[in-house]
Design goal:
alpha/beta; seven-stranded parallel beta sheet; binds nicotinamide-adenine-dinucleotide; binds uridine-5'-diphosphate
Length: 322
């Protein structure tokens, strides 16, 4: 297959490009390098099946040759990134999604949207299954991301219904692993970096909010399963093991052997209190389930971070707090 991956030089995108090449597909990566890095794909650039084009997918771009599948991952994705780039985030979900849907429609290719657990907002149902419609503040600081993804889902379904495009929606829950940016502001990368640097771990709120963390290799297997099938979804892709943020901080301290303290800071506005995916649909229809236990995934992540220059990247600004 020849697969177009938008956002292919980012955290998830670079792992997906690599997995596709490894199984014999060829890949065209489209990225504007706003949060992606050349170093994520440097090892792929010499591979004959891999092409990389620098472009903004919300503008005009061209893909020459056959296309069998399109995976749309391009978007600011961490809360710090989308707080800094609100208009670009809305554009990535709206114009960006439509440009990639048109590409898929023109080639009668499979289209997979990287949506998010954020479509459930600060959920009132727990765990969240795909039939839950969500609880999203449409005007809060997170809305640029949440509503952009909700619009992207609606657009995807409209292309499926009215243009007969073979679409699939993946609702990705918090995923972590090697190639996260040390300063992306997300909880795993931040805690690991702080622990390795001997800095206090910044716990927002009292740390009682929960997340369910999926290791990147598991998530990529789920995306491959979605590329290969004609199923529309949506499918929750995530690990259903739920932990509080405070428990996560303590686990990172134990795994790194760090004696950093916990520093409690105000909770960001609209920070979801609980999040855990119900993954029965993905298990039954995709035959997918996560395999890497949290401790093992975190160990691999710590090992990777400890080989990186820990001060690389620009320290983020805090998002809006309550
Ligand atoms: P990332 O920031 O590492 O990757 C996003 C990539 O998209 C970057 O390479 C960036 O340069 C590129 N990009 C952004 N806007 C672009 C544009 N207009 N044109 C071209 N390229 C553009 O983030 P990630 O964690 O790899 O996330 C990838 C996708 O998965 C995103 O759509 C995100 O919303 C979704 N997702 C990720 C998670 C997670 O936990 N990692 C959870 C839910 C959903
Ligand atoms: N968080 C934290 N300290 C940090 C970064 C994040 O306590 O330095 C919390 C954040 O408030 C949220 C959870 O960790 O409750 C996950 O945050 P992340 O930004 O990774 O993803 P989100 O699920 O909010 O999109």
């Amino acid at each position: 297959m020849r697969v177009v991956v938008s956002g292919g030089s980012g955290f998830l995108g670079s792992h997906l490009c690599e997995a596709l090449l490894r199984r014999g597909d060829s890949v065209r990566c489209l990225d504007d390098f706003s949060s992606g890095r050349v170093s994520n794909i440097a090892h792929l650039l010499h591979e004959p099946g891999f092409e990389s084009t620098t472009c903004d997918v919300t503008e005009r771009f061209r893909v020459i040759g056959d296309v069998d599948a399109v995976v749309h991952l391009a978007s600011p994705a961490s809360p710090f990134d989308y707080a800094r780039r609100p208009l670009e985030t809305l554009a990535a979900g709206s114009r960006g999604t439509e440009n990639l849907l048109r590409l898929a429609a023109g080639h009668r290719a499979r289209f997979v949207l990287a949506s998010t657990s954020e479509v459930y907002g600060d959920p009132r149902e727990h765990p969240q299954d795909e039939d839950y419609w969500g609880h999203v503040n449409p005007i809060g600081p997170r809305s640029v991301y949440d509503e952009s993804k909700r619009f992207a889902e609606a657009l995807t379904m409209a292309y499926r219904r009215s243009r007969d495009v073979n679409t699939g929606i993946a609702r990705i829950f918090n995923t972590y692993g090697p190639r996260m940016r040390a300063h992306d502001g997300r909880v795993v990368s931040t805690f690991v970096r702080q622990a390795l640097d001997g800095e206090p771990l910044t716990v927002f709120g009292d740390g009682s909010q929960t997340r369910s963390l999926c290791y990147v290799d598991d998530l990529i297997r789920g995306l491959l399963a979605m590329i290969d099938r004609r199923l529309p979804g949506p499918f929750n892709l995530g690990n259903s093991l739920e932990r509080t943020v405070r428990e996560l901080a303590e686990l990172v301290l134990r795994l790194t052997g760090s004696d950093s303290e916990l520093r409690f800071l105000p909770l960001p506005v609209d920070d979801p209190a609980r999040r855990r995916p119900a993954i029965t649909r993905a298990r039954e229809e995709l035959g997918w389930h996560p395999r890497v236990p949290l401790e093992e995934g975190l160990r691999r992540t710590v090992t990777w971070f400890s080989t990186q220059p820990v001060t690389s990247g620009r320290p983020p600004e805090r998002p809006a707090v309550g």
